[in-house]
Design a protein that fits this description.
alpha/beta, four-stranded antiparallel beta sheet, 9 helices, 26% helix, transport, ABC_transporter-like_CS, Rossmann fold, globular
Length: 346
């Protein structure tokens, strides 16, 4: 997991135009490495889904990308900026290179079409020269891949359980063997047992097929267990990024610490849940300085004036004084005045 497959650089997304525009994503830098599960966590309204739809150019109006790059690194080819692809290139990129499982995915299936029709339509749209028999055989493979019997191909969505519908959507996302799969809170409506079953299967598929995953959720406990790295979002910015084990043991940002103390431990002694006081900020009127400072128990005077820079604290870097775009995947980054980074961005 040392080479990048997707790089987001300085991404900015607004809703609306002019002075009344809402800045939903601000200067986001994020790298997804090959074969990696990257978790993206934060409360509702922090910008997680907007980031996913922005990097795939699926933003609904009035969403507008106002700056940045999304560099995709194909196997054996030069990186291409997704934000500058023409319509034909973007159509080839979606689903074949990058697939997305949408929020509320188990209700995304068309209720009046059989599962076979919906799976084969995806394949036909990107490979119209294939035969009907070949597409149907691939549909059977996809159901087998996600642990569903092939005789379910002739079922309608309402004849499947919620977990089975979710698995069908994951199978559909893998139909063209993409290199990147983005999952936007795909298990929110499922019970915890089915959640774990689907996530374990996702990890097994990742290990078998070698794709990378961006897994978006508000449930940090899921990411700690299943992801390789975790990025924490708040107020449209990345405020901390670290290996999942490091973030669980030693969160640096007070927001990350609050999220970790908002769910009960499955093992060990009982502990009091503290949670995070207050509510996420209104993007139409963001606080000055650090957006989290009105809710932060460690807020200082500086926090209400200056926006902290996301970077590698000197005592947390695996390599001394590295630029953000040259850091190791093992490096930690944080945007908090409790852990100031060098002013030159190193």
């Amino acid at each position: 997991m040392t080479d990048a497959v997707l790089e987001i650089r300085g991404l900015n997304v607004d809703y609306g135009l002019g002075e009344d525009a809402v800045h939903a994503i601000r200067d986001v830098d994020l790298t997804l490495h090959r074969g990696e599960v990257l978790g993206l966590a934060g409360e509702s309204g922090s910008g997680k889904s907007t980031l996913a739809y922005g990097l795939t150019r699926l933003l609904p109006p009035p969403g507008v990308i106002t700056g940045g790059e999304v560099l995709y690194h194909p196997d054996g080819g030069d990186p291409v900026d997704v934000l500058r692809m023409d319509h034909a290139a973007l159509r080839r990129f979606r689903w074949a290179e990058t697939a997305i499982v949408f929020q509320g995915a188990m209700n995304s299936l068309n209720p009046v079409h059989r599962i076979s029709t919906q799976l084969t339509d995806v394949i036909k749209a990107h490979d119209p020269r294939g035969t009907s028999a070949a597409r149907l055989a691939r549909a059977r493979e996809l159901l087998h891949l996600v642990g569903i019997s092939a005789d379910r191909l002739e079922s309608y969505p309402h004849q499947l359980s919620g977990g089975m519908r979710q698995r069908v959507m994951i199978g559909m996302a893998l139909a063209l063997e993409p290199k990147v799969v983005i999952m936007d809170e795909p298990t929110t409506a499922l019970d915890v047992v089915v959640q774990r079953q689907i996530l374990r299967q996702l990890v097994e598929l990742r290990e078998r097929l070698g794709f990378s995953v961006v897994f978006i959720t508000h449930d940090l406990s899921l990411l700690v267990e299943f992801s390789d790295r975790i990025a924490i979002m708040y107020g449209g910015r990345i405020v901390e990024e670290a290996a999942s084990a490091d973030l669980y043991r030693d969160p640096l940002h007070p927001y990350s610490h609050g999220l970790l103390n908002s769910f009960p431990a499955l093992r060990g002694p009982k502990r009091e849940l503290t949670g995070i006081p207050g509510s996420p900020p209104d993007l139409r009127g963001m606080p000055s300085g650090c957006a989290f400072h009105p809710r932060c128990p460690h807020a200082m005077e500086r926090c209400g004036v200056e926006v902290p820079v996301l970077g590698v604290p000197p005592d947390k870097s695996t390599t001394a004084h590295v630029a953000v775009d040259q850091r190791s995947p093992a490096d930690r980054t944080v945007a908090c005045w409790l852990h100031p980074v060098h002013d030159d961005g190193f």
